[in-house]
Specification:
single chain; about 400 residues; alpha/beta; TIM Barrel; 4-stranded antiparallel beta sheet; 17 strands
């Protein structure tokens, strides 16, 4: 099916499920789905060059509207020819709307940072009540305080879309409110209704500009089925080119919540799951009809010395790896595993050498790229269920 700025073709479906393999075609290249999209928040995937991303098999990069507006400024990015040109990336690009910052700099900030997936405080984000969060939501939009200089910024749906037009990505997202997982039903409902109004304002602004970019609407609704289904019906009925599914999920109900939504959204348009990147979650989401994903997990973990393997996470700081001359993963074909040992990476991290973050990021991204490629092939081969069971039977989310 051809839409504004892109087309989407379903090549094969998973029998008796919502999952599928397809191809998203943009003006700057194809995305073979299911696919993992690398996060380049500030027009860079941390510690890696665009050529390294290409070598890894990354198909598309996602930038952050809020951060790029603050630095270096979307007007400059526009002058440079758009996000892809500015960062010398030869492939499809996406930009999120900045709506997630309403949560991360608002409700999450007040309680010290809430994990987007679980709703629980993390070790890196202690539960400390903070006053005067830098983001506040109103009907008109979100007021932000810049983390760079403290200046006030105000994002409306119209402002977000205009910034994204300047950034020039192939796929952009409607402005939405990502709510706290701790918010009660009443607030979730209010926020959902506001997100729907913002979606219509985003779409109107986009249509008036006659942009060739593809605009995705975002489904919200927290953990409540009636809200998720209402959002899927409302957003799905609007003239968007595709859809994002956002918000906070519990590890135990993410697959169920995704299925509520994808069962309602138009089948012939692509679906993107925002901020999800754990291997077991990817399998479940693909089975339930998600086409693309983005998440900072692989590169963030890499910079902290945690590597993904088919048996689970490997923490390179463990003393047992200091003299281990074997590769991170003997089955991995990435540059890191083909040329360097666990002992070498352990040395780099202990010595605080920048190369450690680069080599670990190469491995983690390649791990996810290989994982998504194997999922796609298993769909085409009618062996998805068996491939999923084989992976999950050996994968351990704990450390190895």
């Amino acid at each position: 099916m051809t839409m504004g700025g892109l087309s989407f073709d379903i090549k094969k479906k998973i029998p008796q499920s919502l999952g599928r393999a397809g191809v998203i075609k943009t003006a700057n290249g194809e995305i073979k789905t299911p696919a993992f999209i690398a996060v380049g928040t500030k027009a860079t995937v941390k510690a890696l060059t665009p050529s390294q991303l290409k070598d890894l098999g990354i198909q598309a990069v996602l930038g952050n509207t809020y951060h790029l507006h603050l630095q270096p400024g979307d007007d400059l990015v526009k002058q440079a020819g758009g996000l892809a040109s500015f960062m010398s990336w030869s492939g499809p690009t996406m930009t999120d709307s900045g709506g997630f910052q309403a949560f991360s700099l608002g409700a999450a900030y007040e309680v010290g940072g809430i994990s987007k997936i679980t709703g629980r405080q993390t070790e890196l984000e202690p539960s400390v009540v903070r006053k005067d969060p830098p983001a506040k939501v109103t009907e008109e939009g979100v007021s932000f305080r810049s983390y760079l200089d403290g200046s006030q910024k105000f994002f409306t749906p119209e402002k977000s879309i205009t910034i994204q037009h300047n950034l020039g990505a192939d796929i952009i997202f409607a402005f939405d409110e990502c709510t706290s997982p701790l918010a009660d039903f009443e607030y979730q409902q209010q926020a959902l209704e506001r997100t729907h109004r913002w979606a219509k304002r985003s779409l109107l602004t986009h249509q008036k500009a006659q942009s060739s970019q593809a605009l995705f609407g975002i489904v919200q609704g927290g953990r409540w089925r009636q809200l998720r289904e209402l959002s899927a019906q409302t957003i799905g009925a609007l003239d968007f080119d595709g859809f994002g599914i956002g918000g906070s999920f519990d590890k135990d109900d993410i697959n169920t919540a995704v299925a509520w939504v994808t069962a309602i959204l138009p089948e012939n348009k692509p679906r993107h799951l925002l901020g999800i990147g754990e291997p077991e979650d990817l399998w479940g989401a693909v089975e339930n009809g998600i086409d693309t994903f983005d998440c900072v997990i692989p590169t963030r973990m890499a910079r902290n010395g945690t590597l993904m393997t088919n048996r689970g996470r490997l923490n390179i700081d463990k003393a047992s790896y200091r003299n281990d001359l074997s590769p991170i993963d003997k089955t991995c074909d990435c540059y890191t595993c083909q040329h360097f040992s666990r002992a070498y990476l352990a040395h780099l991290f202990r010595a605080k050498e920048i190369l450690g973050a680069t080599l670990a990021s190469i491995h983690n991204l390649k791990f996810l790229i290989n994982l998504m490629a194997s999922m796609r092939q298993s769909i085409l081969d009618d062996s998805f269920v068996e491939a999923k069971e084989t992976f999950l039977n050996t994968y351990n989310r704990g450390h190895v």
